[in-house]
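User: Show me a protein chain along with its predicted structure.
Assistant: Here is one chain, sequence first, then structure tokens.
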Amino acid sequence: MRSRSLLAGAAAAAGAAWSLPALAPVVPRLASPLGIQLSMESREGVALTFDDGPHPEGTPAVLDALAAAGAPATFFLVGEQVERHPELAARVAAAGHRVELHCHRHRVLLRMPPAALARDLDRGAAMLAEATGRPIGLHRAPLGIYTPAALAAIRQRGWRPVLWSRWGHDWRRSATAASIAAEATGRLVAGDVILLHDADHYNAHDSWRATVAALPAILDRIAAQGLRPVLL
């Protein structure tokens, strides 16, 4: 009976350890001990980041809004979308923005065995390199959910895992330009990393439109705080 209890306890402990990194997006204090970056060292910079692209409508609209303000951003692209729209990935890079890897297929890493994860990372990186000519240095997991195996695989490739310190919940169907801007810039400080999305491949249909509409207000509020957009 005692041996069963010990086995159950060991299994529970192993499961908790496996799932611990997945809590970092909602329990930020876990990120630092796990070596996951949430913010950056900067006296006046704020990093705008966009996930899930490229998107044939959302990405050009975001690029146009950023260009109008002279604002740089970091795009965490999805390999399967780059494969469909390599010219958009190239356009992001050519505009001077940073291009990094989100995934190849948008899947929760908790459900992926190590071999499948390795294939996803390598294929996604290859797609981005082929489209942009740039190597990968940063990675952001789908939904921000990491596992110990994923963190190890990312570091083995010389990449750095990055999440965010502010977000606009812009993937929700109920999100509006006003709600996104308010949430993304509430209590903004130097070094913040803001999560937004330039695509609706995995979110509410047309959700990128609210994001694009929110960008002028977000950029204005960054400036009003005496801050400026910078690359990660």
